[in-house]
Design brief:
By secondary structure, the chain is α/β, with parallel strands linked by helices. It has 13 helices and eight strands. Strand 1, helix 3 and strand 2 form a beta-alpha-beta unit. Helix 3 packs parallel to helix 4. The longest helix is centred in the C-terminal third of the chain and has 19 residues.
Length: about 325
């Protein structure tokens, strides 16, 4: 793979548009580059990055990517985007969708608040069906990430997916939030938790796998990550995270607990590296605007989710249509 020439000739948007003009297809490129789409999750904040993903479909840019990497809710969004029905991304803005996923009354029965199993295994096969076969057949590679429950390492689940049933397990594994979503998910002979424990912005994995350029879809406002990797001290993990490591994950491996407690530093380092690549023209990050409605990990209000989805969609159109 050749080294990038300069910022002007390797700018992310320039590369994507040139590929569309040339009619190149994944696996048959002539530019020697590997362009990755990285989609951040964050529970129902995923509505924001899902709106951005729909804009990519509307602009016809998806075939210009070589691979899509998703973390947690971002993995679900990535699957919808590469499916035969990317309009299914609008499900993020449906109140019934959120209420199927988040069930506060489940706490009274000792069950997880986030029922990711019902979403993937029931809703996505009945009322809001996803064409899982089309995701597996996509020419653009699909890479859902998760956190290995034993090693605490970020893991690309693509090699572990051989059929629609394993794809559904991978989606569940990528979004299996410790405590909120219950136990880990087993895929083949390994157990996994939410990708966000080890790699909340899916950047390190595609970089290690040879990506030269990145389009990053963020679901959070930049100010919500108050740490950098250039010597600025990183605050201690929130009390809720420290409590989670001591209680819910107390029987899990020390490596998994350490991954959870140190994820702030990794995220800060990744943001700093992405910023460097942006300066070189090799990365472009689309972020929510300051006017985006505040969406939490567990938001279920339909109007708020719809507004957040549309804000993400507009932000992507504004960034990519110029």
């Amino acid at each position: 793979m050749r080294a990038p020439a300069d910022k002007e000739t390797t700018d992310v948007l320039r590369v994507l548009r040139e590929r569309l003009r040339a009619g190149s297809t994944p696996g048959n490129r002539t530019d020697g580059l590997r362009v990755a789409l990285s989609i951040e999750g964050g529970g129902m904040r995923g509505a924001v990055s899902a709106g951005m993903a729909l804009a990519l479909h509307e602009l016809g840019l998806v075939p210009a990517f070589d691979a899509v990497y998703g973390a947690s809710a971002g993995a679900i969004t990535g699957a919808w985007l590469l499916s035969s029905r990317p309009e299914g991304l609008r499900g993020w803005a449906e109140p019934d969708y959120a209420k199927e996923l988040i069930r506060w009354q489940a706490v009274l029965r000792g069950r997880p608040v986030v029922d990711i199993r019902a979403l993937i295994e029931v809703v996505y096969q009945t009322r809001w069906p996803m064409d899982f076969e089309s995701v597996l057949a996509s020419a653009v590679e699909y890479h859902p990430l998760a956190t290995d429950a034993v090693t605490g390492a970020s893991t690309d689940l693509r090699p572990l997916i051989g059929d629609p049933a394993e794809l559904r397990l991978a989606l569940r594994a990528s979004a299996s939030l410790p405590f909120l979503a219950g136990a880990s998910v087993q895929l083949r002979d390994r157990r996994f938790y939410d990708a966000g424990v080890a790699e909340s912005i899916p950047f390190r994995t595609p970089l290690a796998q040879g990506a030269t350029h990145f389009l990053v879809l963020r679901s959070r406002l930049p100010l919500t990550v108050a740490a950098r990797a250039d010597g600025v001290p990183v605050p201690r993990p929130p009390r809720s995270i420290r409590l989670l490591a001591r209680t819910t994950l107390r029987k899990e491996s020390p490596e998994l607990r350490a991954a959870l407690l140190t994820r702030g530093r990794r995220t800060a380092d990744d943001m700093a590296r992405i910023a460097e690549l942006e300066g070189e023209g090799r990365a472009l990050t689309i972020r929510p605007s300051a006017s985006t409605p505040p969406v939490s990990r567990l938001t279920t209000d339909g109007a708020t989710l719809a507004a957040a989805f549309e804000a993400g969609r507009k932000a992507a159109h504004a960034a990519l249509s110029g």
